[in-house]
Amino acid sequence: MEKLFDFHFHLLFKHYIGVDAQKGVLALDEDLKTSGVANLLNDLLGGPFDSQSSPSKVKRSLLSLGVTGILSVEHAFANRILQVVGLDFSSILPLKTSVFEEVRAGKTSYYQQFKDQVGFHLQKETELRNSFQIGFLKRSDWAGKSSQEIAAELGAENITWLAFSIEGGHNLSDAPIRKGIPSRNPERQLLEIQDREDIDFISINLCHLSFIPEQPLGGFAQGMTRIAQIAFKSEDFMPKFGLGLTELGKKVIAQALTHTTKPVLIDVKHMSLYTRLDFYQYREQLILQHPEVERLPIISSHTGFTFTSAAEYLEQQRFRSSTALASGLPVSKVEPENRRIGRTNDLVNRGLFANPWTINLFDEEIAEIMQSGGMIGLSLDQRILGATNPAADSLRDRYYEGEYVAYPEWERLFRDGKLPGEEKEEARRSLVPSKQERHSMLLCLHLVHAARVGYANQNWLEGTSPWDHLCIGSDFDGLINPINGFEDVTRLGRLRSQLMTYLPQADKYLLPHAHLKVLRYNPDGTVNRAFLEQVIDAFLYQNGHRFIIRYLLNWKSAGLPV
Amino acid sequence: MITHWEVIQQVARRFGDKEQKFEASARKLAMVKEGRIPLVSMEDDLTRVQYRIAREGEPMPQAVERVMEHANFQDKYVLDKLSVMARAVCRILQRGNPVGTGFLVAEDILLTNQHVIEDAGAASNMLAEFNYELDSNQVPKDSACFRLNPDKFFLSSTLTERAGEPHSGLDFTLIGVERVGEAGEDLLKYPPVFLDGNIGKIIKGEGCVIIQHPRGLPKKIVLKDIAFFSETGTRLVYESDTLPGSSGSMVVGLGTCEVIALHHSGLPRTDDGNRVLTKAGTLATASTPDGEIAWIGNEGIKISRIVKAIEEAVLPPSMENGRETLLTKTRSVAREIRKSPVLARPMDLPMPLTPTTVNKANLDVSTAASGQEVPSNEVFAAEESTDFLLTAVNKPEVITQIEKFLTQRYGKEVHLKLAMPASAVEGEVELFRFRVQVKGDAREEVQQLVTIPEILTAELDTSLRLNADPGLVASASGHETLLESSGLKDLKSDAKDEREFLKDNRKSAYVKDKLPEFYRKWNWAATGFDRAINLQNVRLPQEKGIRVVQFDTGYSNHRKVAGGFDLNDDVNFVEAHQETDALDKLTQGLGKFPGHGTRTGSLLIGRENTLIPQEGNLGLLTRSGSKLVPYRIADSVIILDRQQQLASALDRALHQGFDIITMSMGLPPTIATAQMAKKAYDKGVIWCCAAGNVVQAVVAPAVFPGAISVAASNPLDRDWAGSSRGDRVDITAPGEDVYVPIWKGARLGDPRQEAFAYGNGTSYAAPHVAAAAAYWLAAYQDSLSAPAYAGWRRVEAFRQALKRSARKQNRLPRKGFGAGILDMEALLETAPLPPEQLEYAYNNWNEHAFFASLQGYQELVKTYWNRVHGLIFGLRLGNQEALMAGEAALSPFSSHLEQTLFPSGEQALESDESTAKASALERYQTLHELVFSSAK
Fold it and tell me: Using the beta-carbon criterion (under 8 Å), do A184 and B657 form an inter-chain contact?
């Protein structure tokens, strides 16, 4: 039977923050569902409220293996979520008011919230196992087993195994939320988490979507859309301060990677570009002091790509930028040039564009991650993959929506003005994805791009390839707007056929590195079906499967896939 | 493109009627060259002479001598400098044909004549070709061509003056250049020559050189004796050989190696109708060869005028950065020059002068109104705006409201900036800054600002003298020791050799009958560090992630501290363009005493064994493997340029999450420093501060309740006579006769020699407590990481442990030295008090009253502070003190206050030096008392 792996989604987040229609406890077999005005709001914000990967949906899906993220609600969300766009929705939204209220008023710390959520997951463990055939992974449970044994058990039918990740370093802050008192020892909280015997984490994101004044670990990249930002109306979604990793951030990274028995991988998703570059460098330093860190791969669990290299983007200044002052603070904006990466035969929506925001990975980073033996989860969020206005998506201005970056980072990377550069007109004709399926094409363009960058930047041993480092990282239930046709985890079954159709198209029509082909072709020019199926298998399941085996073996097989 | 002939004609039309003036100057120059009149008498502008001398960075007589000497002897480095500067010069090609010369004035902005590049459109088929020159074998070097990019930056001024267009007629074009060349070359290989718009880069009679591509030939430099001899409001006139194609060349003043003008044309002799004449006296035409035209000299556009045009131009926002970069040098030089001793007192030059008035008129913006020919001289960068700091509640609506008031008041848009953005808390009172040009007295303006609703306090962010220990290097370089005659009791000279040290401390338990390797480390024995660190189970700060950041002059390469500073996380808050490198420039001249950060830092991270002779002391954190993070906040221990620099450093340290700050420099109490001390405390950062030297009163930030304030003791466990003392001292640590690294022979140009000396200052006491804090935090990290100790309780827990464990057996005065001498061994045994027993340091602190009182007294406090420090630490030049710009008279408001407080008036200060010092100090102390009594 077909199996899927998902590198990043949220299993119980909605159950933790949600209530049922009668404002009572949301049972595990219920989904969070908005109706009426709230449903409108749900659509307006890109569907953040309705469940996408609840236990019952997972049960009905092909998901066999994955990583579920735990995150405590950030102040930036809690601050206005019940009064979105200035109206009081607290009675309409099916949300557990108390959680948001406590966060908003600073009556709790993120670490406390995090521990509460961990408790919630553990409390539901038995029910999940019995009623939904969902099991949690801990390295200690698998100790002593060989990789073959692990592979077989993980692949067993009728059970979905999930590992845990920590989404956002804010989860480590033990200071009251936004009260001006700093959290000084996040690494100690992390150590406490690592030393727990009842739960195990595969990775942590240093940053998430908002600024955490009580515990800055490193600059984050803007991830919130303009509309959501206006709706939630928190300045904290805009990066403003800081440059790269802070001293605290480095302590957290060192703690995560040097724990002797339970190291936690660093997930670069949500870090700003400068912070990521800083991280790759800091990791090298750490390896000098602690050689065992080298076996721990770099990951980005739910990302898109910018379809260019950072060098090209910055040095050729494929953006325009500005800075100004608002309320005493510098507000710096970078508007990247729209980057066309392919096209469709749809008369209205001919062009396909990437999301050039720096939250997405640059080519150098794709190579860096592959080189570390790492894994890249492709987000299924439309925005991350580059879709914007659903009605007329290819009529774009020269510049994409501006993103905000921290002033010091702006100063360092984006200070200078624009450079003219006409987009190259594409001469090719006929390409088939329909309007409905354009998002599948976008996903395939991402896959092909990563494979090309991988082939172009690195030598591959026989039996290995860039395709070994790509997987799904849907981010379901992470307040996202999924790509068309894949609205929740139950729909992922359609992926295989879509990939079969569009991967060859993407290999043919992807503009960057057009001369490089990453699929195999028969002498008559047709696509080699066996290889195509093999890379699709790898993407949908095998890569994740292998990765989780390495995790359960505590990363003992360095570098190469098992 | 405008033709060569058109340019000549234009020059003739414009300046023909000034010909007599030029001729007269030329005759005078001839007399100077024949040695018949002294060089300096060429220059009729006294202010320019003063500023020129100020640039020498030496005391008066030597500086004058140097300027005079330049006429005949140039230092060899001038050649080196010129050769670097020449790299910035390029030729401009239009469709491959050379049309002029240009040079880089910012990393990617080029300056040339407007008659070479008329407008942005014209640039599209032009290239800038660098390195077009011959090597020593006369073979052309590989040149590199770069495209021009007017979108990046473009500003030009027409050849002819146009009515209603300010700054027209300056014939210049500034244009952006691509950073990558046509063959992939890197523009960074051609370092720019930044423009300095300040006066005094050259005086008449001094030589200049022109670096150029005449007729498009490989780069040439005219080495003939060429002098600057006359001028108009916008032009300099000089002798020289240039040919067409030299338009847009760089004209450099030899004495200072600064660009003085943008070469633009020859200056022809004319008839009554301003028509160009040939050597034969006939009328010249477009076809007359250059060689036949009768030239008076050459003329170039004054750089000061170009800089002024840049400052006042209306530019799109995307070019603001370019503008800022172009103006950076002008601003920083202006600050430097104002600190010069030469400007602080009247000139006394051995020559007849017909002075134009030497007064603030030259600094006044209004006299330099654009478009009009200012007779006397270049415009001093007087556009220098004023920086204000103010406090207000950090809420968007409050900020907007204040911005509205300010915009209304100054007639142009004003924006507030948070002084410490990363650690600001919404809804709290925070420190803001803004910059604006003020007409009238800025100090009076401060009093006006607080009348604006929502502004709680306001102060000027001007240069403040620092309280630190500048003595060592100064005395090593042959100056007389600075503290010797300060009129205060029992102050020993600042640098001491070992014989004196042994003699003075022969009764010390740490010295008597001890070996050098012991007594040079007496500070270890006196504080119990030697025993404490060897204890079993000592937890190392490094392993616990406890880091110390140092606010000082930055790191250096002295072998004693090599490897001890963290060069990944260092930050430079002084030179903004080198933000990531906190290197102490060790700059001499203009009264700078480098290496302060090296000396204080050595006490924390000084290496154990070096090959420097007479090795002895060791950093207190060295064995724990810790590195010290240097934040460079001042380029000398004399002056803090702006309090904003300190605020930025603190904000950065807080954002990074460092645990401990050590600061061995003091300031007068100001509203800004009070805010900073409280912020650090509230955020739980232990800020170890020197209590202060010589002024007796405890200095800021040590004086504020949030800081840890450290006084100084000596090898006899007595007080160092120079140590500040008072209720606000928390603890005492070794500060007199502490063994620290220095450089010998630190005079300009001499090779520096690494050495050691015994130095004095609370500067040395503070690092001891910082090291103690690091070990203590490491020891009790388990309990202290509990949320109950978050924020200020962490600092308070340390303070209480420090005080409870202090060594009471000592010979310190009973009062004023805190709980006693630091005892590391006992401290490590002292657990933090339970959180509920800790009391907030600001509980008995009436902040409102304190700020209100400081608001009124601040100008007096700062003035007296600067005066006292000038008298004590300033370079004495012929019995005159001066280092910063001459002290301006008090504003009427403060003058009135002063008369009320000190009815005897000013006179007392002008009699003789020692009474002046005593009296100024007494008054400073009175003010200090007044301000702080209000807080109680």
Answer: yes
